[in-house]
Amino acid sequence: MATKRAVGGLANKVIAYAFTVGVILALVVGLIGAWIPTWLPVLTSLLILAGIVVGFFNISPTETRDYVLFVTALVIVTSLGQSTLSQLQYVGPVLESVLKSIMVFVLPSVVIVGIKAVLNLAKD
């Protein structure tokens, strides 16, 4: 019984760190994506996969409403910020790339969390 609890606790910790790892990966992809264009599709696929993992496993039903609200605000601000920041002379393209990477990570998770919320509403 103790080993079952320990395994469950370890799984919860891994899942809890998935969002943080996804954000860090998005920042790294955004920063280095311009210098290694051949790896960009692979790194983008990893971001999408991390977003799917976060959407399925990291957001509990009690957190759904807040998560969808905050991520929707993040997506709006990020999409508006991309066009504004891209106009900066030296750091603009890098900041735009970082924001795009964050969106690539967050969008799959919010779609999955939203679908799960709709299915939970349909069950009730």
Descriptive tags:
4 helices, single chain, mainly alpha
Describe this structure in words.
With 124 residues, this protein is mainly α. It has 4 helices and no strands. Helix 1 runs antiparallel to helix 2, helix 2 runs parallel beside helix 4 (92-123) and helix 3 packs antiparallel against helix 4 (92-123). The longest helix has 32 residues, at 92-123.
What is the mean pLDDT? 82
Main structural class: mainly alpha
SSE string, helices as H and strands as E? HHHH
Largest sheet: none
Q: What is the count of DSSP helices, taking H or I runs of 4+ residues?
A: 4
Concise summary:
The chain is an all-alpha fold and 124 residues long.
Question: Layout of SSEs?
Answer:
Blueprint: H1 2-32, H2 40-58, H3 64-85, H4 92-123
Helix pairs in contact: 1-2, 1-4, 2-4, 3-4
